[in-house]
Amino acid sequence: MSRSESLAAYLRGQARRRLDRVESRDDGRNAKCALALLDTAAYAASLPDDDPLILMLDEAGCFGPLGCEQFDPGEAGTKLIRLWEGGEPHELLLALPAAITAAP
Questions:
Q1: Which domain of life does this protein belong to (predicted)?
Q2: Domain extents for the chain?
Q3: Could you tell me which residues come within 8 angstroms of residue 6 by beta carbon, excluding any fewer than 6 positions away?
Q4: Within 13 Å of residue 10, how many CA atoms lie on the same side as its CB?
């Protein structure tokens, strides 16, 4: 599995997690978040592994120390993804390295 595919699979999993969430009065927030994550997953799947966004995520350690493991953004990256409510797909991918490196 390529790094782009691994990233896309992770994002699709997070989207499913949001769709499965039941909250009273969420006003469609979980569904909107899930759609934004699915959009980002589709975008990520289309990126080549040498795309600057993928390389930035690799440098941030999202693919393990050798760059060949499943995508894992760590606690800070996961928190950002779980709170993501929309925007352009590249905006989430650009925000991840900064969130990860800023984490204590």
A1: Bacteria
A2: 3-102
A3: 63, 70, 71
A4: 21
